[in-house]
Amino acid sequence: MKKLILYAVVGGIAFIIGYFVNYQLFSDRAPVQPINFSHKIHAGDNQIQCQYCHIYAERSRVSGVPNVKRCMGCHQIIKTDSPEIQKVASYWDKKEPIPWVKVYNLPDHVYFPHKRHVRAGLDCKNCHGDVATMARIEKVSSLQMGWCLSCHSKKEVKNGSDCWTCHK
Amino acid sequence: MSGFFERIAGKLKSYREPGYYTKLDHKWTMVIDLDKCNGCEACVVSCYAENNLPVVGKEECEKSRAFSWLRIERYVEGEYPDVKVKFIPVMCQHCMKAPCETGCPVYATYHNQDGLNVQVYNRCVGTFTCATYCTYDVRRFNWFTYKWPKPLEAQLNPDVSVREMGVMEKCTFCIQRIRAAKDKAKDEGKDVQDGDIKPACSQSCPTGAIYFGDLQDPNSVVAKLAKSPRRYRLLEELNADPSVIYLKRVMGDGNSSHE
Amino acid sequence: MKRRDFLKFIGIGGVGAGAGFVLGKVSKPPGAKLIPYLIPPEDIVPGVATWYASACTQCGAGCGTLVRVMEGRAKKIEGNPAHPVNRGGLCAMGQSSVQALYNPDRITKPLKRKGPRGSGDYTEITWDEALKTLAENLTELKSKGNSDKLHLLTSPLSGTLDKLVREFVSAFGSTNYSHYGLFQRKNLAFANLSAMGTASVPHYDIENTKYLLSFGADFSSTWVSPVNYSNGYGKMRQGAGERGKLVQVEPRLSLTGANADEWVPAKPGTEALLALAIANTIVEKGLAKDGGAWRGVLSRYKAKDVASICDVSVERIEAIAVEFAHTRPSLAIAGDSVSSYENGIAGAIAVNILNQVAGNIGVTVIPNGDDLGGGRRVDFSKKISTLIAAANADKVKALIVYGANPVFTTPKAAKLEDALSKVPFIASFSSFMDETTAQADLILPAHTSLEDWGDDFPDPGVGAPVASIIQPAVGPVFETKSLGDIFIELAKAVGGNAAGKITAPNFAEYLKSSWKELYSRNREMAAGTLGFEDFWNKTLQNGGWWGPPRKRTATVSARASEHLTGGPARFEGEEGQYPFYLIPYAQTAYMDGRGANLPWLQELPDPMTSVVWGTWVEINPKTAEKLGLKEGDMVNVESPFGKISAPVYLYPGIRPDTVAVPIGQGHSHYGRYAKGRGANPIEILPYNEDPRSGEAALNSTRVRITRGGSGERMVKMEGSTKELGRGIVQTVSTSEFKRMKKEGV
Questions:
Q1: Per the CB < 8 Å rule, is B161 touching A108?
Q2: For residue C106, what are the β-bridge partners?
Q3: Among C97-101, C181-185, C404-408, which stretch is predicted with the lowest mean pLDDT?
């Protein structure tokens, strides 16, 4: 009987460890995208500015995932023989948007304007990491509240720790 | 051990600088002219539209669970044919000495630097304490997670969270509009001007009875109206120091016309 | 530890960890998707709101709106602060139009009837099939020489849409295009036509009025142009000058009456006499502007004779008359409760005469001139009774309905449904399954105003030319079509004259060319613009065009007095058997019933009773005591024409000999929020309309109240209606306020 309890305890602990290992280490930091898009090629090798594609970052709350027309603007000519580009072209031909998988996701009760952060002179790298080296985009910040607040207090943002500055 | 507690206490203190509650950035204030208000309830619908208030249905209404953050109260005096009817719009009064704030065990309701009494939805655990402490009965509780039948949910305002079951909520003075106005002012490199912010109720009011502005700005419309001899505040004797100022209704003393 | 045990632990640990890992994987929500635009729309930035200027079509007032659109969805409707009609305000119903757009019970596709009429049993068909079916029916009609047996019944359309429909109908060869609505205020228009020469409602300058005498005009909630009048009311009370006074004459205290300084509960049906007695007193006392012309006509209405009929004392009539004549400027308005009788025109004319003798015409009553030529046309020969008679005589072979819901808003006594059953083909363009649409054989759902093009020339205006534009703020939510486009495509499908006449490719183009014409006619519009395109862009940006105010005046012609009747209005039902007057009234939220399908409006507490989601019967507490009724008791309201049941609300603001029931509930169709809720008081009315104008006589029957009946219980939001000394709504007296103003504090 005693042994049975012991087994249960060991099994339970292992279960919890397994759960958290999955949650922390395999937490879709870099999900597989419908198209194997490489920021390294675009932002790294070719040094395209972030806001060339993420056009709303300075104007809106959202930075904006590039529209398919913007992709095709270049790729009608460039590397049209690549199988990944042909995938993009097939979405364009079907007149369908590309179903990208979200990497940075905020819950509904958070108000985060890209605009204010970009206009405050913050570099995209601060939160998104050095995407210029990422072949597949990877989440580098936890986006937890403590992470936000640590930066807000370091930079002495006015009312930066007030709940309703960032919650809605 | 004591050093540990002191360190935590010190941290908590630094979070609130000295004078946090006395020196405000703004003191948002609403002035409602009861002599203009005709009780038409346009403001009530406006509030529903702006703040994603759910419609709960007849059964829930019967249990007083309707969500109107803003309601028009009506009082009737006298008997036929000498009936006098009076209307008053009542929403969260954003008390400077708010009873609700003292009650919350998790600090989900507090005063911010704009003089607003705010409710943090994601911190609220639904103890209902604030609603029982509230003098004005303006707090509303999410008894359920309310659903919007498709495609009605397309109307939901993305600037305001959709609250879930177990959360207390109330009028915010349309804080999302305050935020938007500040955002715009910052882009233009200036301070928020008087008249930049209009909460949904004030914007829609057909008679123009609801004014909104910063009481700390001596030139604002509300600062001027707040000096009116008709000024009073709701249940002022309770000393909650509300931020909503009412202007008394002018009501005939019978033979006033022949004076 | 034994080796066996160790291995066992390893095994259990491994299985546990594996299970935990899998559970963690499974329980995680699937990654949210980021869906980009294929091609980004030019004027949209995600996360930033776009505002479109448009106009509200929920009622006929024509308020200018701004629609807040985010990511292609309409979020909120606000009043356009620059629009001269509403100046930024917008009523509860107008703001709810977004819930009409996204209503879960909208008709999403064209429908063809499957079950019997009225069953609501339909099958979905394509637009091509629907238009083809409709066109075939019409061409068949035409080929048999029955063109004139096509009838079109719509809500009062105005502007270019009205022009297009008129063009279509006449090109097809029919003359039967009529407007219908419960609150069309045709009596008011008729009275103004015979008194001042224009068949429209003049602009009432409430803002600058110092003594407003309202005969049952509930301008705070539903009467004619509520937001415009409410705006004026606010300025009248607390504006630049002295505070204006409001006196309300009506048997049941309306929302406007609740704000009045004095309430005169005259007996139902006698308001016209009271107005004339006031006018006569003004003339007799030598206070009139041109008393001589009116002395003869008015001498029949002496205060002392009329007082007992109206149940208003002679002293009070005289006091009102003196104050009305002395306070400059004053204004009298004739609302629904004075013009909804069988001789409603007489009441409206009486009020015109009162304004004339007090010298208000041209001062606070500014006659409307349809400067821009787009205003609502009022055709007094087109009545619902003519349609019913024609249908019964087999003179209606095809009926097209849009916007109007006569099955709900005509009394059962009219036997409209019987008449409709004789019409072989009925088509509806409504986007909602209302009672009339449920009778249709074919439904071609049109856009709501937030998805469609259009324009509006508000009537009453504001003493200035106003033309509003309605533009699509969002793309169509369902497979509906623009109403104008339906007519244009129908014209093409029908061919012949109609196709030859209407050549525009779509309604948007038709509208634009119509405005081009307007622009070329109007020099004021052209001023300050660089040609039409520039003007058009500015118009779309501003929500329309409005010109400077115009001072117009008129003289009430003495000939108008021929429509006056000597006595009070007639009520059906003998007083002994049916002791109470019935006042069915338009309520803030539901109006003529159109608001009942919008959840915000259902849950909006009635301003006077705080009742939600239902119908109620307002009874004076004293009367209820006599009848042994308590609040919430279910009663039957029985007229000689039928019976409805609803719960009692004890209402001190109503005459003891009168009961009132709000209109708007009691739908048998019209979506999940409206269907099977409450009762419809129109059902038990006699089939009475003013024969000259065709306006329904709502106040024309007596009823008796008996305990019993079944129905939903009443839910009201109010707690106590008494302040109990808490000083919640504090007041200052008028004299105290005058002192405050004088001292400049």
A1: yes
A2: C432
A3: C181-185
Select from C345, C366, C387 the last residue of a domain: C366
Determine the residue among A2, A4, A10, A139 to mutate to test chain C binding: the one whose Cβ has the most chain C Cβ atoms within 10 Å.
A10
Chain C positions touching A2 (Cβ under 8 A) are none
What is the rounded distance in angstroms from the CA atom of residue C221 to the CA atom of residue B207? 12
Q: What is the pLDDT of residues C272-320, one digit of tens each?
A: 999 999 999 999 999 987 777 888 889 999 999 999 999 999 999 999 9
C342 and C315 part of one domain = yes
User: What residues in C contact B66, CB-CB < 8 Å?
Assistant: 603, 605, 612, 717
- Which residue has tokens 């986007």? C431
| Number of independent structural domains in chain C | 4
* Helix, strand or coil, per DSSP, at residue B86: strand
**C397 and C516 both lie in a single domain:** yes
What does the DSSP 8-state code read for residue B246?
A: E
Distance CA C125, CA C104 (A): 19
A28 in contact with chain C, both atoms CB, cutoff 8 A: yes
Cβ pair C35, C69 in contact under 8 A: no
Interface contact B160-A109, CB threshold 8 A: no
Are C282 and C342 in the same domain? yes
The ipTM estimated for the assembled molecules is 0.92
Is the CATH number of domain B23-247 3.40.50.300?
Answer: no
Q: Which amino acid is at B60?
A: E
Domain assignment present for residue C557? The answer is: no
Whether residue C572 lies inside any domain: the answer is no
Question: What pLDDT is attached to residue C160?
Answer: 93
**Amino acid A105: pLDDT:** 86
> Inter-chain contact A13–C12, Cβ cutoff 8 Å?
no
Q: Other CB atoms closer than 10 Å to residue B221's CB: what's the count?
A: 15
Whether C87 and C232 map to the same domain: the answer is no
Boundaries of every domain in chain B:
23-247
Domain encompassing residue C246: 203-366
In angstroms, rounded to a whole number, what is the distance separating the alpha carbons of residues A24 and A20?
6
Amino acid at C447: H
Q: What is the pLDDT of residue B257?
A: 35
pLDDT of residue C28: 61
**Position C593 in a domain:** yes
| Residue A13, helix vs strand vs coil | helix
